[in-house]
User: Fold Ornithine carbamoyltransferase from Candidatus Marsarchaeota G2 archaeon OSP_D.
Amino acid sequence: MRVNSLSGRSILSVNDLSVDEFESLIDLSIRVKKSVKAGLFGLEKEGRIITLLFQKPSTRTRLSLEVAARMLKAHPIYMGAGETQLSRGEPIADTVRVFERMSNCIVARVNSHSDLVAMRRLSRVPVINALSDFEHPLQALADFMTLKERKGSLRGLKLAYVGDGNNVAHSLILGAAKLGVWMSVATPEGFRPSLEVIAAAKVEAEKTGAK
Assistant:
């Protein structure tokens, strides 16, 4: 399956993607990585403007997004926590209206997932989740891409996660269910994953045979 079906769509959660779309994104990422190493990567998005709204600082996410955008000849514009009127109490609706008029895409790293939901509702351009308190879908995409590169196949793979049942855990749980990965999660008492995420993962797992 091609990823053309994602054109113009917002992605706030791994669950915004179908099984085929998630697998296709992983495969596309691997192909692009190989093309970059071989010096064959085509630059297709010249002139596009990508606004990076980061309410929380980042090293790897910001750098990887800016590098990727520039490799596509797009123009990333970074807006940190104190660089917008949001820090002075401006309603998020007003900020989104400015961004959507001057950008082709908004990539947001936010404190609250509800801000992303509001952005998607208000924006006429796609909104991509670069981390929220509920999910980190880009991290999960990169992790499963690496696993596929190393293991060759994801279906039936056994994955163990030890740590807080946090945003990364949520995206990995949903991704594993979509990809047919058997995932075990061990968390400290009081830090378990969201019951909402577990319920959604069970629905996907029934389709793919994940455990």
User: Anything to note?
Assistant: The chain has a mean pLDDT of 92. The chain has two domains: 3-131, 137-208.
